[in-house]
Amino acid sequence: MKNLKKKGLVYAVDDESDIIDLLRHHIEKAGYNFEGFYNALSFLSALRRKKPDIIILDLMLPDYDGIELCKELKREEDYKDIPIIMLTARSRVDEKILGLEIGADDYITKPFSPRELVARVNAVLRRYKEEEKEVDVIQIDDILKIDVKKFEVYVSNEKVYLRPAEFKLLKLLVEKRGVLFTRRQILEYISKGGGTIYERTVDVHVRNLRKKLGEAAKFIKNVKGMGYKFEI
Q1: Residue 182: closest CA among 127, 120, 104, 100
Q2: Model confidence, pTM
């Protein structure tokens, strides 16, 4: 049998052995190397020896709170750039928002479809690889073109004039397309922590941006109660 090159290394942390076995089967079948851990201690020990390409993290671990663990990883210089997908039985909207706000790249609730989870892993890793490349011009189908260096936006070859906040909002969503951003995350990116900011401001920016984008406005999706994402 031909020895196929592996796509990358996936770490999964979950105290349920059935979940780890299920993840191992589907993730290895998808072409990744896989290591599973039943607690945070063994995971952190392995992390210090070798960094994975992505982490699948349960929030309810026997020895550590998953939210706090995610926070710590995103604060650490060595680990902050490793994407994290949260996998948990917690399904409340405010818990999903919290997970996304502290830096998780995606949030999947149990019970889950293994095929969907593998698709999410592929999508998150693909976005990270795209972000590593310096791109001056972003082209979405034949509809939307963004010249990052010139701060110019074209819809169906017609130039659209955006305000600085609108341009930054569009750039954020497009560069990380598929990622759901809460209103708080968007505000912090636009304002960089300066002055008094209100979450309703985001809705105003999005509404104005959609008006200016015309047919390209369909790519900006609202996820009720949570935030916005750019999806083709």
Answers
A1: 100
A2: 0.65
